[in-house]
Design a protein that fits this description.
CATH architecture of the largest domain: Up-down Bundle
Number of helices: 20
Number of strands: 0
Distance between the termini: 86 Å
Strand content: under 5%
Largest sheet: none
Structural class: mainly alpha
Helix content: 55-70%
Order of helices and strands: HHHHHHHHHHHHHHHHHHHH
Shape: globular
Radius of gyration: 25 Å
CATH topology of the largest domain: Heme Oxygenase, Chain A
């Protein structure tokens, strides 16, 4: 029979030809099996990106890991929803689908250095994931299983950019000698993938390679680290919040300080990654929403980076402090850190918070600052809602949740004097140098009062309350 559509219109909503739609080698069971495999790979990638973020020194990798973890979490959420639609109670999404895949990701998680981590993540894991997406797009019935094929196409579309970033990262960070040194380990990863091949006929029948780096159980490192461009990271000699709320200073000058505040937000993903890694028993929805927030905070840091470039000022000449994440990660439990995070978020909601920063940015007549603060405010409203969904229900009321977060923050020792006595910093006042450079770019004379600003974090925390010494 010759079948034609009306005036030659594409058949079947453009999903497939009539011939393609008549093939029958597919089932719900096979679709779910493939989805669960993708789900496992994406969750392990999400785990590795978040687990390695805090102690990774390179700024560009910290921010990239934040973004890539978010993209993985979004795809995980889509797969979980699709599996739940396919007669699968219970879903069984926490079951390891293949021991060879487990060994593969365990090895990458335990990679000892940045070079090995980058080479394996982006040179092995991402290509393997994209190959599985291609196979699912190819094999899924284009009409009957169109929702699954769509998920695979969307995952491939987003994650192809991740792989492209990774290829460039490998070129930048891994030289020929390092590739040779890790060649045996990378070959072990290839062996694991052969064991886990989707096609049974292509699977290796040899013995699964012995664990290499994963022979020693992975230990999470919650101590933040920064690369050599971050000068004087223990420096807490300038309190930006006190400057921002001081009525003596102009909106233009406050915008400069806000660019600094945004860049300094790099320590928020460093802290949030520790919550995600050390609270693995929370529902996936918790991890998904918190990963979105983690990514937002990394975006805010990059907004500050762009703000400095906008003013043609080298941020590397300014100390970007990391002691907030350092102190919270090393002095508090994950639950207590979450309490501090929520307390800070709620403090940003009144008119004196993010709305005020946006108004300052608009009044400064710097359109870029106005744009950044507009979206920064929107993000923080979302973060407040995330906290209300996942943090507040653990308490009897919102006030109890806030009081707990305040108490937790009050427990944190600033070590301000200790860091100075240990020779880690002099808490130098870097503000006058930065301000003079900005005034030169603006073509204005520095305000003497702003130039003389000299308020530190010695006795105050970011909300200007007294801090433990």
């Amino acid at each position: 029979m010759t079948y034609t559509t009306y005036r030659g219109l594409p058949p079947l909503a453009g999903l497939a030809s009539m011939e393609e739609a008549q093939r029958s080698q597919w089932s719900v069971e096979e679709s779910v099996t493939r989805l669960k495999r993708l789900h496992y790979m994406l969750r392990r990638l999400h785990q590795i990106f978040t687990a390695r973020l805090t102690a990774e020194p390179i700024y560009e990798l910290k921010t990239a890991f934040s973004y890539h973890a978010y993209l993985c979490s979004e795809q995980v959420g889509a797969i979980r929803q699709r599996v739940s639609e396919m007669r699968q109670p219970p879903l069984g999404l926490e079951v390891v689908p293949d021991q060879a895949l487990k060994r593969f990701f365990d090895e990458i998680l335990a990679a000892p250095e940045t070079t090995e981590l980058v080479a394996a993540l982006y040179g092995k894991a991402l290509p393997a994931l994209l190959a599985d997406c291609d196979a699912l797009i190819r094999d899924a019935h284009p009409l009957a299983d169109a929702p699954t094929a769509r998920i695979a196409r969307l995952a491939k579309f987003e994650l192809a950019d991740v792989e492209a970033f990774g290829r460039q990262a490998i070129e930048c960070l891994v030289d020929a000698e390092q590739r040779e040194e890790m060649s045996e380990w990378l070959a072990t990863l290839d062996d694991c993938l052969r064991f886990a091949n989707l096609d049974p006929a292509e699977r290796s029948d040899a013995e699964l390679p012995a664990p290499h780096y994963s022979a020693k159980p992975y230990e999470y490192d919650r101590t933040p680290r920064r690369d050599e461009r971050f000068k004087d990271p223990y420096n807490a000699g300038v309190n930006p919040e006190a400057f921002l709320y001081d009525e003596r200073f102009s909106d233009r000058d406050k915008t400069l300080m806000m660019f600094y505040k945004r860049l300094r937000e790099l320590d928020v993903p460093e802290m949030m990654a520790s919550i995600l890694h050390e609270m693995p028993d929370q529902p996936w929805e918790f991890h998904g929403e918190m990963t979105r927030q983690l990514w937002d905070e990394a975006r805010h840091a990059m907004m500050g980076e762009v703000g400095f470039a906008h003013l043609n000022i080298d941020w590397r000449e300014v100390p970007i402090n990391f002691t907030w994440s350092l102190n919270l990660n090393t002095q508090l439990t994950p639950q207590e850190r979450h309490g501090v995070l929520f307390f800070i978020e709620q403090g940003l909601m009144p008119k004196t918070g993010k709305r005020y920063e946006w108004e300052v940015a608009l009044a400064s007549n710097d359109p870029l600052s106005g744009l950044f603060q507009d979206f920064d405010w929107a993000d923080e409203v979302l973060h407040s809602q995330i906290g209300r969904r996942w943090y507040v229900p653990q308490f009897g009321s919102l006030n109890e949740a806030l009081e707990y977060g305040d108490r937790c923050w009050s427990k944190v020792l600033s070590h301000w004097r200790d860091y100075k006595e240990q020779g880690l910093t002099e808490h130098r006042n870097w503000w006058p140098e930065l301000y003079r450079a900005a005034c030169q770019r603006w073509g204005v004379t520095p305000d003497p009062a702003a130039l003389a600003y000299d308020v530190t974090y010695e006795d105050k925390r970011a909300d200007l309350k007294s801090l433990s010494p």
